[in-house]
Amino acid sequence: MIQKLKILPPTLRDKKRYIAFEVTSHGSLRRDDLISMILDASLYLYGACGAGKFDLWVVKLWQCKTDIDSTKGINEYRMKGILRCRREEIDSVMAIILTITNFRGKPVVFHTLGISGTIKSAIKNFIKL
């Protein structure tokens, strides 16, 4: 007789929090670039053992409008996204986001829009699509 694996009850699951953020950069960014920036910053700040505790995941990303300044020749690319992490590690994840300042020699600015308990409320309150 084949037995199915039992699903972990909600009381035993890890609690998650969703961080809504906005990224402004001078070069265009892709999802892979954003993931590598966050992963590299977490490994640099906390090491492999510490970064494994955070359970980081980029849930969703949205491309926003691009600001073009023809006089200075600067293009600002904006993205909004949602990052998932464990509830107990929210302060550590916020510290990781603050340490990211450049990517491939170009400045990058992360701005935290807010923290939510669900993806739906993060989109509704902070991303505002």
Automatic annotation (TrEMBL):
Q: Which GO terms describe its biological process?
A: tRNA 5'-leader removal
Reaction catalysis annotation: Endonucleolytic cleavage of RNA, removing 5'-extranucleotides from tRNA precursor
E.C. no: 3.1.26.5
GO MF terms here are: ribonuclease P activity
Q: Does the keyword Metal-binding apply?
A: no
- Kindly indicate whether the keyword Signal belongs to this entry: no
Q: Which protein is depicted? A: Ribonuclease P protein component 2
**Source taxonomy lineage?**
Archaea, Methanobacteriati, Methanobacteriota, Methanomada group, Methanobacteria
